[in-house]
Each structure stands twice: as C-alpha cells, then as structure tokens.
Amino acid sequence: MRQLLNEIIVDNFAGGGGASTGIELAIGRSVDIAINHDPAAIAMHTANHPDTEHHCDSVWTVNPKVAVRGRPVALCWLSPDCKHFSKAKGGKPKDKNIRGLAWVGVRWIKMVRPRVVMLENVEEFKTWGPLLDDGTPDPDRKGETFQEYIGAYKRRGYNVEYQELRACDYGAPTIRKRFFMIARSDGRPIVWPEPTHGDPDSLAVKAGRQKPWRTAGEIIDWSIPCKSIFNRQKPLAEKTMRRIALGTWKWVIDTDKPYIVPVEFKCEDDHSDLVSAFLIQYHSYEGAEVRGQPLDRPLMTLDTSNRYGLVTAHLIKMMGTNIGQPADHPLQTITAGGMHYGVVQCFLITYYGSSIGQSLDQPLGTIPTHDRFGLVMVHGTPYQIVDIRMRMLEPHELFAAQGFPKEYIIDRDDKGRPYPKKEQVARCGNSVSPVIPAALVKANLPELCGKQRPYKTQHQLEMALI
C-alpha cells in the first residue's frame, strides 16, 4: 500500500496535455512528471497542470533515474512524434531520428522499470521499418523495426498488446483513430476497455448498452457569425468555392435530411426560418477524396492546421411562418486539420417561384438581387438558398471536438501571456484525445483511480510517509 501511494506517473512527449488530462480524469490528480522539448507546449501544459513537475528538454536528455528520484513508476506514457509515420505526410522523405523517438520507452524500462507503459501513435506505426537511401520506407522491410521494438519489451519481461481505438467510441465527438500499445511487467492482465458509445443505428445503442456517438454539431459555437462567400473584398479561391458547391449539393440539396441548426441560434441579420449547415475541408492528405461532412456524425481527425470550414444555409418561408427545428442527429467528426476546417451556411427561403437558378455542381456565381437558387426540401416543404456563408472553426471548437474539458486553458500560457491561435490549433492537432487515456488507465490501473490523492504535491506525500 505504501508503494502504491508513492508511485508516480510520467508523461513523455506531453504536448498540450491531452494524455495528462485523460490520466487526471481517471485518477483525480495531475501526472507527476511531464517532458517535452517545445516551450510553447510546456507553457500550455503548465497552465493546466501546475502541480506537475515539468522538464522542457529532449526526452533523450532527461535521465529517468534522476527524474524519478528513487520513486517507483506506475505508468510511463509515450506519445512520440507521429508525422514521419502518418500517411498524411504522403511519399515525402522520413526522418529516421524522429521515427526512432519511441525507443526512449525502452530506455525507461531498462532504467526504472515502470509497472505499465502505454504508447499512442498513428495506425502506420505498425509499418515502422528501415528507410532507403532516399529517405522513403523500404517496402520489403515494412514492420521490421516495429517487431524489434515489441521484442525489446518482451525480452525484459513485459507482456505487450496493441489495438487501434477510436475516440468517438469513448465519448469524444471525433472519429480520430489511433494505435495504442500497452506493456506491463507486474503479471496482471492487460485490459482493453469496452466502447461506451456507438453508431446510433447499431443494436448496442438501440438496446441501451451504449450511448450514441456524440456529434460535430455539439461543438459548433452557433453564436459566431459567418461571412457570405460572395462579394468578399478578397474572393475565395476557386478550389474553395468548388468544395463549397459540391458540399452544398451533397449535404444540403441532394439529401433527404439536411442538418438544421437549432432555431435559437439563427442569425439576427437575415430573418431566417431555418439554417442548414455542413463542414468542408480546405485540404486533405495526398490521395484523399474527403471534401466535407454532415454535422450529425463525429468529426473526422484533426491535425495541426485547421482545415475545416463551417458552411451554413439560411432558410425562410416567403409567408413568414417560422418552421425551424432543433437538430436531431449527431454531428460528424472534426477532421484532423486544425485551422483548415470551416463551417458553411446555406441560407434558404421557401420556394414559390419558377426559377431555381444555377446548378451547384459548379463553383457558385453571384446571387442576383431578386432571383434565388438551390431548391431544398425540408420535411416536405420547398426552400431555396438565398445566401451561403462560411467561417473557419475556432480553436475552442476544435478542442471540444477532441474531447477536452470546457474549462481547459488554450488561449494563454502559465504566465498569462496570450497564446497565438495558430499555436492553439497546433497543440490540439498534436494532442491525444483525453477520453482514451482515461479509459485505458481506469481499466488497467484501477487501484490508482476513484480517489484524489490527499497531498497536493509529491513532496508533501513523502514528508507524511517519513
């Protein structure tokens, strides 16, 4: 019991604090040690985890024995840089030094032997192998280094298992899927937590065994205005207009169930009855065909640059009757691009005339003064689009999609200095969705969960045990 009370938790590659936040949600206190080479990441982590001992240094520079000061380690968490494994990097050359950062975990098990090690990375981590002279992975030796890595743990008495888990299955409104490895040396079984959320159409959800996935619509701040895509001082790029047009066609016009924004959030300047909305992607990784998504599903994966745009369509009835309704479907996942996402709003009016206007499978033109375009059916009532508006998603929306608590500090550092929006988005895209670390720790280290440690700092605990 004395050893359990004295055990510590270490978060390597701590970043903005996603893993640390999830662990804290599970055990009721902050992690003891956080390590990251980036001062900006450490600043955000310190603002949210002031009781943690922070090391702003390379993970290779920090000596595990010196850092733990003789204390036993219950959990060593690892989230090494993933971009030189990710398919999002395409066929560009990889950096073998960055790809090799995960080996620091073997250093920790050699020097201080944590009871449990958990590692998070992209799915392609399993393909880790040698590089050719041009810096690209050797196709004939794919996964070779990964097997050596797993073997290094097993040779030192650790049981090792790994799976791919999705954040939406554990309560975050994003479909972000990641590779997770668990290694433990204490002889206890490795436990993979059962999903708590699922597809609304699944038997598990209908039977009440799981909750429905949370949606992208939940995290949108509908009080933030969108700007019309037309007659802008700086016109939108042709590719952006084309994506908006294709998204408007797919998610507003050519769908039986357009996503309708809750009526209490309708814009004040256009007397709309209904507002339909969806998300577009500004960019995607090489070879991807994703152009957007409806808002009634979890958001797609976020990366370090905001790629999502919110597009909204406002609807009014010519006779002045308000037929707005709350959204009854979960929003889709926020994609992995940080500031590359925008919301598009389609503004519609009830259609009583004969002119439908232009087709929306081409970039949209300017809106005539009197004419209208884009026929939309909502519960059997015809509407037309009178304006389309778009804005990028804000950092607080992206962090909410990733599953961070609402009170998480993202806009300033530990000294109260403003934190640039670009840095906020980068920290979000690099972060671990907190819901999965929370579930993994609860399942594998239940003895540390359920009670908050009565001592604010490790020093106070040590003094009490003397």
Description of the molecule:
- By secondary structure, the protein is of the alpha/beta class.
- It folds into two domains: 2-212, Rossmann fold; 227-393, no CATH class.
- The protein is 24% helix and 21% strand.
- The protein is built from 14 helices and 16 strands.
- The protein has helices at residues 2-6, 18-27, 39-48, 64-68, 96-99, 104-111, 144-154, 203-206, 216-219, 238-253, 395-402, 421-430, 435-444, 458-465, and strands at 8-12, 33-36, 53-56, 73-78, 116-121, 159-166, 177-184, 197-198, 211-212, 227-228, 274-281, 292-293, 306-316, 339-350, 373-378, 381-392.
- The protein has a seven-stranded mixed beta sheet with strand order 3-2-1-4-5-7-6, sandwiched between helices. Strands 10, 11, 12, 13, 14, 15 and 16 form a seven-stranded mixed beta sheet that branches.
- It is elongated, with a radius of gyration of 25 Å.
- The two termini are 15 Å apart.
Give the structure's gist in a few sentences.
Helices cover 24% and strands 21% of the residues.
Shape: elongated
Q: What name does CATH use for the topology of the largest domain?
A: Rossmann fold
Biggest β-sheet: count, sense, barrel?
7 strands, mixed
Oligomeric status of the shown chains? single chain
Gyration radius, in Å:
25 Å
How many structural domains? 2
Key words describing this protein structure:
14 helices, 466 residues, alpha/beta, 2 domains
Task: Outline the secondary-structure elements.
Elements: H1 2-6, E1 8-12, H2 18-27, E2 33-36, H3 39-48, E3 53-56, H4 64-68, E4 73-78, H5 96-99, H6 104-111, E5 116-121, H7 144-154, E6 159-166, E7 177-184, E8 197-198, H8 203-206, E9 211-212, H9 216-219, E10 227-228, H10 238-253, E11 274-281, E12 292-293, E13 306-316, E14 339-350, E15 373-378, E16 381-392, H11 395-402, H12 421-430, H13 435-444, H14 458-465
Parallel strand pairs: 1-2, 1-4, 2-3, 4-5, 8-9, 13-14
Antiparallel strand pairs: 5-7, 6-7, 10-16, 11-12, 11-13, 11-14, 13-16, 14-16, 15-16
Helix pairs in contact: 2-13, 11-12
